[in-house]
Amino acid sequence: MNIRARLAGPFAALLVIALVLAGSAPRTRILPLAIYDQGFYLGIAYDLTHAGRFTNGYVFQETQPDQPRPPGMRFTPLYPALLAAASMVDPGFDRAMSCVVTSRGGDASCGRNAALVRSVQYAMVAWTLWLVWWMGSAVSGARSTGWLALLLMLACAPGLAGAANNKMTEVLALALTTSAIAAGVRGVRPSGRAWRWFAVAGACAAASALTRPAFLYAFVACLLAGALLVIGRHRSARRCWLAFAAAGAAVLTPWIIRNMVVMHVAGLTNGYGPQVLVQRLAFDQMDWAEWRLSFLCWLPDGNGMGELLFGRGACHRFGWSDTPDTFYEIGNGKLMQDSLAAAGGWDGMMRYLVANLILPDLPKYLLVSLPLAMRGVFVNHYWGLVLAPVCGYVTWRAWLQRNWALLIVTLPPWFMLALAAAVSVNQTRYNLLLEVPFAIAGALAIEKIMETHYPKFTRAWKSCWND
């Protein structure tokens, strides 16, 4: 195959992706900059550009207008650093960000100017979609599978485009984790440079942890699983593991050293983890009737069905309103205040939550995590419900066959789903990574069905894309 033929497929995939995103963008909503969690990261970015240091931002560190905020480490640094860099070359975004911060999010006229950030995040979405096309081809050895995977993934394009409009961490984390997975897939393919690809995977996985702290656990889980797999294997396998570990450590270490020197805490964050966990633990207060109802209320259209079947307000406590009786508000309000007081502050908060709210009623904690895990599966609404069992079956088959490339694609997102259900309220935006294995598993399943029932059509289909 000549070079022109080899490049035709990748460029065609990029063209299709660009056209779909261009068509999706006008249909998405651009929110005010102070809505949702955007203020967290804008505040830190503002302090980084104006005071030259990472802080906890205006949301978590209120100071007098003429006093700079002290250093902080409530959030990891990568996404605020991206916003800070964008504000230095985009004056409109810099003015809007300054307005949000100086008004503490209270000025509705601050505008929504963030064209550069949105453009960069759209590019990240395009990169993620392209990697799905590449990985679909790589795990099957056929470009036809890659095109099917891309077609399935493009069903998520409007939602991803909407996420790209927000100044929050999801799109950057998705691009980095997908890059880490793709590098791992490339590393297990026959190559004399496997260790270099695993170094790329380790660096990207660690960078995702500097974007969303929960991905640190995925990095550690991969290290532990890799250590078990390379025991007794050839030296090249051990070299790949060492490359993954060393590259990840090189990315994480500077931030941890900064925190040790400046904050006297050897960690990625301080305060963010227990705040998220206490929000999650509030849901353990539901009774068993509410637990059964949660499986209905957390369906994509569950609120409407819950009211239809069980009366007005049946699903009210499971939502995100500010009324005191919702579980989310309990976690943000009374339970958090009581736990902070009992723990003596944020430093002892995590130990207190584990010892006093999780371990004494561990079965309830695990059972409540089940509907929360189901809630996280609904990426792209019912698209996720359809493809989740398909991906589960494909993962099981890959394990039986020791298909390491496919397991690298599927296992990390499943791990993150379980983790998010255990430690957070697990909104679907936390689980965008699931879209990657769902699309690839769906493509493999479709091709398998086609081969079984329509062999002539399948041969023609594969010949069209693979030659």
Task: Give a short summary of the structure.
The protein has helices at residues 3-24, 38-51, 57-60, 78-89, 91-102, 115-140, 143-154, 157-165, 170-188, 194-209, 215-230, 235-263, 272-281, 288-297, 302-310, 327-332, 334-343, 349-358, 362-377, 382-401, 404-423, 435-453, 455-466. It has 467 residues and is mainly alpha-helical.
Descriptive account of the structure:
- The chain has 467 residues and is an all-alpha fold.
- Among the domains are: 34-113, no CATH class; 272-453, no CATH class.
- Helices cover 71% and strands 0% of the residues.
- The protein contains 23 helices and no strands.
- It has helices at residues 3-24, 38-51, 57-60, 78-89, 91-102, 115-140, 143-154, 157-165, 170-188, 194-209, 215-230, 235-263, 272-281, 288-297, 302-310, 327-332, 334-343, 349-358, 362-377, 382-401, 404-423, 435-453, 455-466.
- Helix 2 crosses helix 4 and helix 13 (272-281) runs parallel beside helix 18 (349-358).
- It is globular.
- It starts with a helix and ends with a helix.
Characterize the main sheet.
Answer: none
Low-confidence stretches: none
Roughly how many Å apart are the termini? 9 Å
| Nearest-integer average pLDDT | 91
Give the overall form. globular
Number of helices: 23
Estimate the strand proportion: under 5%
SSE pattern: HHHHHHHHHHHHHHHHHHHHHHH
Q: Give the fraction of residues assigned to helices.
A: over 70%
Instruction: Give the helix/strand class.
Output: mainly alpha
Count of distinct strands: 0
Q: What is the gyration radius calculated from CA atoms?
A: 23 Å
